[in-house]
Amino acid sequence: MSALTFSLKIPLQFAVNCAVLSPAYLAGKSLAQIAALSIEHGRTRMRLDQVFVISGHDTQDLHIKNSSSQLDYLGANMGSGSLLVEGDAGMYLGFGMKGGEVHCLGNTKSFAACNMQNGLLIIDGNTVDFLAGASAGLRKGMAGGTVVLKGNAGDRVADQMRRGLVLIEGNVGDYCGSRMIAGTVGVLGNVGLYAGFSMRRGTLLFSREPQLHATMQACGSHTLPFLTLLLKSFAPYSTRFANSNAQRVKRWLGDAANNGMGEILLISD
Q1: With bands split at pLDDT 50, 70 and 90, how would you rate the model's confidence at 225?
Q2: Buried b (16+ CB within 10 A) or exposed e, 91-102
Q3: How far apart are CA 241 and CA 193, in angstroms?
Q4: For 154, how many CA atoms within 13 A lie in the half-sphere containing its CB?
Q5: How much is the average pLDDT of 218-231?
Q6: Integer Cα distance of 138 and 105 in angstroms
Q7: Which of 5, 155, 209, 212 would bridge with 216, disulfide CB 3.0–4.6 Å?
Q8: What mean pLDDT do residues 165-183 have?
Q9: DSSP state at residue 221
Q10: Model's pTM, two decimal places?
Q11: Which contacts qualify for 258-263: CB closer than 8 Å, 24 or more apart?
Q12: Which residues contact 246 (CB under 8 A, 6 or more apart)?
C-alpha cells in the first residue's frame, strides 16, 4: 500500500495548524473525507485539498512533500505510524508525541519535541529554541522518547525535561538543560552559556568543555566503563555518538544553587 502523501501546492502567507495530519486521526477515512477536512490559514479555513495535492492510501505512513516552515504541529500527539517531512517544518514538530516516528529532512522552528512522551523524532537540519522543552504555559518538558538532531539547536534545549534521550550532533545555544528534572542530553558541538542552570537531576553529555556558572561543582576526572555501552546503545539511531569509544570523563555536579544532583560529563577518548 502506498504512503498517504500531501504535496503542498500553494504558497502559505500564514502558519497552518497541521495537527489533523496524524495516522490516528486519518485512520479509517476515505480520500474524499480526508480532502474535505479543514485547517486554519490566518483568519480563514481551507479544505485540505485546497492546500495539498493528496495521493496514496496508507494512513499509517504519511509523507509531506514540498514542505514549508509555515506548517506547524506536524506529528502532534502521534501515537503510532510514521511521518516523513520532505523539507522544512514549522513550530511544534512532534508536539506531545506518544509513539511512532517522525523524520524531518529539513529545518524546524521552535518547540520541536516539546511535551513529547514517547516515539522517535529525527531532524536532519537545524532547529531553534526549546527543543524537547515545555510548551508555553506548561511546567513539564519532554517526558520520554528519543530525539536525534543532526544540525544545531538554539537556546533552552531540554528546558524542564523529565525523561528521555536527546542527541545533538551540532551546536546548542544558552541554557542547555535548564531546570532539567531527569533524562539524558548529548551534544557533540559547542555549548552556550549557563548549561545545567537550575537542573535538579539528569545527565548532560558533552564532547567540548562549556563555560559553566559558579554553582556547577567540579568533581574531577573518572573512568566509567559503562560509558562505552551507553554510547554503543545509540547505534540504532545512526548518530555519530555511537562512533565514540570514550571511557574517561570530567564530571560536574549541580546546580548547587537549586540543591540539584544533575551531572555534566565531558567525554574524551
Answers
A1: confident
A2: bbbbbbbebbbb
A3: 22
A4: 12
A5: 88
A6: 28
A7: 212
A8: 97
A9: E
A10: 0.95
A11: 258/198, 258/199, 258/200, 258/215, 259/200, 260/196, 260/198, 260/199, 260/200, 260/201, 261/200, 261/201, 262/177, 262/180, 262/196, 262/199, 262/200, 262/201, 262/202, 262/203, 262/204, 263/202, 263/203, 263/204
A12: 227, 228, 231, 267, 268, 269
Give Cβ neighbours of residue 194 (< 8 Å, ≥ 6 apart): 174, 175, 178, 213
**Residues 155-177 as b or e (16 or more Cβ within 10 Å = b):** bbbbbbbbbbbbbbbbbbbbbbb
For 243, what's the count of Cα atoms within 13 Å in the CB-facing half-sphere? 6
Query: Could you identify the residue written with the cell 506536524?
Result: 74
Residue position matching grid coordinates 550532533: 169
When pLDDT is cut at 50, 70 and 90, the band that residue 1 belongs to is low
The CA distance from 15 to 146, in Å, is 26
DSSP designation for 219: E
